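Subgroup meeting minutes
Present: P.N., E.W., G.H.
Scribe: E.W.

1. P.N. recapped why we're keeping a running log of single-chain structure predictions: easier to compare across weeks, and new members can see raw inputs and outputs side by side.
2. G.H. added today's entry (53 aa).
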Amino acid sequence: GDPHEFRRAVSRDVAARGVSLDDAADQTHGGAVGQRRPLPRHQTKPPQPQAQK
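Output recorded in log:
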């Protein structure tokens, strides 16, 4: 129930994966899971036709 505890758990998992915390948070909200190229939070990810089909 503690949001800080969740963030710490995510931080540990992210650190183990070698992915930035922002990228991990992005993945939990429909981001591309498995992509290890974190984009700036203000930059939107353009749709990739080759990835969609």
